[in-house]
Each structure stands twice: as C-alpha cells, then as structure tokens.
Design goal:
single chain, seven-stranded mixed beta sheet, four-stranded antiparallel beta sheet, 5 helices, disordered C terminus
Length: about 260
C-alpha cells in the first residue's frame, strides 16, 4: 500500500501534467484566430526646445516634443488567450554618425485590457452575495438606489477592444539624443507597434506590412510620412502639419500635409 504522502504526490503530479497540457493547447490554439491589425499615424506638429527635458537633468540640451494623430484597429488581436495589448508609437531618426544605426525612442504608449480584464468575474455574484449585500444598506440608501436604477438609461453595446481614434495626442515622453542635438535632424518617421500579452504562452510582437505567418497578417500602414525636425531659433521653434496656427513670436515653417 502507498502512503498518504505518495498518493498526494501522484495526484499533484497528475494535476500539474493536465494543467500544463491544457495551457499548451490554449497557447497553440491562437494560431487559428486570424489577425489583421491596421493603423495610421500622422504628424500634427513638432517642437524642438533647448532646456532641461527632465527635472533631474543637470544640463540643458535639445529635446523634441511631438504631437500626432492615431487611427488604429487592433480588435483582431484580441482572442480567448489575450490578456492585454501594449501599443506604442516609436520615433525613428538617423544618428549623427553614418556608421551608427538609426536612433529610436518611444514617445507614447498605452495598455488596452481585454474585456475579461476590464470586467473580471466576481465569484460572489455566482453565490448571490451581491443581492444579499444590498439588503444591509440603510433604507434611505436603498430607496435612492432604486430611484436611480428606475431612471437609468439602457447601457449601449460594448465597443470592440483595440479601436483607437485619437487626435492631437500629446507625447508621454520627450525625445533626447546622446549628442544633445536634435535641431534640423531629417528623415524622421513615426511608427506604431504592439505587443500581445497572453494569459498563457509567448509574447508576440509587431509584424510589419508584407510579413505574416499563416492566418496572422502584418500590420497594414502604421508609419507616418518622413518629416524634419525644425531648426532651433530662440526658445522654441514649431513645425506645423495640416491646420493650426503657430503662436505669436515663434518661427514656424509650415510643412504641407
């Protein structure tokens, strides 16, 4: 006869084997879910400023402040194994040394949670504790809650996760360079990238347009037109794309959209 400890070890080993097998099947099953992400990013304006980009900076240097418009459809990246989606906008510009690779800096990012993350399951609701908890409220609170519920409008259908439509977005991060110089830097582009973080399995990263694997297609678009950093004149210089008027007293070369 096996001892209780041996039996417990066998049960635990069987449980971990089954859990690992199920997790592997879930991670591999996402390959049958089609992915067709698309994005469009356009420059709104860019400012080159000389100062201290961070509160802890000890010296003044040139840094860029870039605003942009973003339209994206990442809804196809959400499936049964998607926990959340990390989206970012990347600025790419050439280095001062021709032999060095281009410099890249993230200027904006966000996390889009899956519907199951936004509205997690409450196990107490399955047991009916939510209804019982309302009975413990004061009578005045209950009557007010009922009155609000009576006039509350019917909620609209939940929008698909991963749909972005943002205008004139302010950057979260400033662009700096190791040389401390950014003015008049040319061949600058903005690119949209993403990273899918699953419940189980490996992380998946951006696939560019033209690439793909099976039912997973590369992202359509996601890159802005090439633009140039404005020259540094005075305290602030702004390059404007599209509509919008520069502030008085600022040199603002206008670039056609």
């Amino acid at each position: 006869m096996h001892s209780s400890l041996v039996r417990l070890q066998n049960v635990f080993g069987f449980f971990t084997t089954v859990a690992f097998t199920i997790a592997t099947l879930v991670a591999l099953s996402v390959v049958v879910s089609p992915q067709t992400p698309s994005a469009s990013v356009a420059l709104r304006n860019v400012q080159v400023i000389k100062g201290r980009p961070h509160y802890y900076s000890t010296t003044k240097e040139e840094y860029a402040h870039i605003k942009f418009d973003l339209e994206a459809d990442f809804s196809s990246l959400f499936n049964w194994n998607t926990k959340q989606l990390f989206v970012y906008v990347l600025a790419t510009y050439p280095s001062l040394t021709p032999s060095s690779p281009p410099s890249q800096a993230i200027i904006w990012d966000t996390i889009i949670a899956s519907p199951s993350q936004q509205h997690p399951l409450n196990p107490f609701e399955l047991l009916g504790f939510s209804a019982a908890s309302t009975s413990k409220l004061p009578s005045g609170t209950k009557s007010k809650s009922k009155a609000k519920a009576a006039v509350a409008p019917t909620p609209k259908a939940t929008a698909k996760p991963g749909i972005l439509s943002l205008k004139n977005v302010k950057p979260k991060y400033q662009i700096t360079d190791v040389s401390g110089k950014l003015a008049s830097r040319g061949n600058v582009t903005l690119e949209v990238g993403w990273n899918v973080q699953p419940w189980v399995g490996a992380l998946t990263w951006t696939m560019r347009e033209g690439s793909g694997w099976g039912r997973w297609k590369g992202m359509a678009g996601g890159r802005s037109e090439v633009f140039e950093m404005p020259a540094l004149k005075g305290k602030k210089v702004e390059t404007t794309v599209g509509t919008g008027m520069p502030k008085g007293g600022e040199a603002s070369p206008v670039v056609g959209a």
